[in-house]
Amino acid sequence: MVQVVNSNSFKGISPKNLMEATYQASGNFQVRAVFEAKDEILKAGKFSENEFYQILDAMVDAETERKLVLERLKDKDPLFLEEIVKEIKEFPADNVIRDVIYLREQGYVQEHVEIKTKMVIKKIKGEEKEVEVKEYFYRYQVIESPIEQFFEPVSIVFKAGVCCQCGWCSAICPVNAIEVTADTLEIDKDACMKCGLCFSVCPKSFSIDQAYKSIKKLDKSLNWSDKIGAYVNTYTASTTIDEIKEVRQDGGVVTSILEYLLEKKIVDAIVAVQHSKDIWRPEPIIVDDVKDLYKTGGTKYANSPSLKIIDEAKNYENLAFVGVPCMMKAIEKGTLFPSGLPFFNNIKYKIGLFCMESFPYSDLIKLVKDKFDKKIDELTKMNIDKGKFIINLTSGEELKVDLKEVQSYARDNCHFCEDLTSDYADISVGSIGSQAGFSSVITRTKEGEKLFNDVVRAGLIETKSLKEVKPGQGLLERIAGIKRKKCKPIDLKQNKMES
Ligand SMILES: Cc1cc2nc3c(=O)[nH]c(=O)nc-3n(C[C@H](O)[C@H](O)[C@H](O)COP(=O)(O)OP(=O)(O)OC[C@H]3O[C@@H](n4cnc5c(N)ncnc54)[C@H](O)[C@@H]3O)c2cc1C
Ligand code: SF4
Ligand code: SF4
Ligand code: SF4
Known about the structure:
Elements: H1 15-26, H2 29-36, H3 38-44, H4 49-73, E1 79-80, H5 81-87, H6 93-106, E2 109-124, E3 127-142, H7 155-159, H8 168-172, E4 178-180, E5 185-187, H9 197-201, H10 209-218, E6 223-225, E7 229-231, E8 233-239, H11 242-247, H12 253-263, E9 269-275, E10 282-287, E11 319-323, H13 325-336, E12 347-353, H14 361-372, E13 379-385, E14 388-393, E15 398-402, H15 403-406, E16 427-430, E17 439-443, H16 446-457, E18 461-465, H17 472-486
Parallel strand pairs: 9-11, 11-12, 12-16
Antiparallel strand pairs: 1-3, 2-3, 4-5, 6-7, 8-17, 8-18, 9-10, 13-14, 14-15, 16-17
Helix pairs in contact: 1-4, 2-4, 4-6, 5-6, 6-10
The structure holds flavin-adenine dinucleotide and iron/sulfur cluster (3 copies).
């Protein structure tokens, strides 16, 4: 469930300290930029005047809280996030954690990283071996003479070659200055008011993984895995609905959950993808009628900038969103920073897919030609399974090549992605770990666990624990761990593309 950042309660803070912090907050560059651009924002038509003030108030409140947290950390030695949470009791622990991470990005707090190594016994190819494992410890300390950092518009992310084209920045930009397609990102420099909101919410601008890990570890009802993240339960599951079996990728679990949500009117609409007029090129779609749902079934391996249509779905009260891990992180980041804006509040459920990589549409066509000597419109299905890239043809034929052979066609930015299993979703679904015709499911939040069990109780899905089947959770954790290990670090200063 997307967490909405509440308007902060400043109970217990002295009026003098609160006034001082609010005064400082109103001087913050993001708050000023949004305030000064009121006319342009209203003219852009994305927000009503009422929403504009809600956004501004939320931004001032969040910034005021950060100033108060900063004040409390002054003159302290470097502290772990857990120690900071114990120290600052005035605000909820998860607020304090997100505040410290944002203060780091704003240039007020320094992150000290300590790396320790330890030897552990691991089974490698059936043999027990002693291997060295690195552990990272992060502590935070206020910088004595800080200089506030201004956030660049997200063109810096695109030029560094790490943009995943999720489209989130385009939905968020209050003056509609950003145009994102599956391959391009353009910013209208004249319209841009340099508020840096797009940078704050972008999944590739700065990492929230440390904050996420610390916040999730506070919740003792959740299980934690360094490889697949926080979770309530893991399952293997398959749909019981014949029509969904016709269109599904794996277990048809995603479409079954979506059908339940729409049928029971738990959500008014779903944002998913369908084939565009070019078959296998995904295009985002808002579905508010079950009869249109089945055209979203099945995996399109090309990327889709699905989040850019979220503001078009703004008038629906409750939404479910389906997407790949980078999109789940984008939505989560948008609720954490800078403050939680009104149009995020209608995303009630995030259904995340597993994702090792996606492909530019043009390279997918090339891949099918180079490796199989086929045209893309001859395909009825594409799949990645057991280390193979598999295609099914209208002729009924099935062809496969080693996954290694097609990896050079994948999007470059996917090499900078550490998340296989949609850490930030309510429910994550993929195939790794399950038998053919089944999906592996990770429920990650209490709302996600309840929804999954409700769908099972309603008879739309049959399921058992992922720990009871082969290859099961062990394989899933191993592959998720490999993706994290292979992930390249992001360096935004390294501009790979021409401006
Ligand atoms: C680019 C990509 C790479 C993937 N890589 C892996 C992998 O390496 N390992 C693994 O186990 N699983 C991977 N998956 C997930 C897997 O292919 C299935 O989507 C998942 O198992 C759900 O199957 P299902 O039968 O329950 O879904 P279905 O009931 O068939 O529903 C599929 C859902 O996926 C959505 N969807 C399809 N294509 C896209 C897209 N391009 N972008 C956003 N949403 C989309 C549709 O809107 C639909 O709601 C990947 C998915 C994608 C989109
Ligand atoms: S928000 Fe998404 S589309 Fe925008 S720059 Fe970041 S990764 Fe790219
Ligand atoms: S492009 Fe980014 S920095 Fe510029 S106005 Fe839009 S959100 Fe603000
Ligand atoms: S590998 Fe990561 S960046 Fe690439 S599409 Fe999948 S989730 Fe997004």
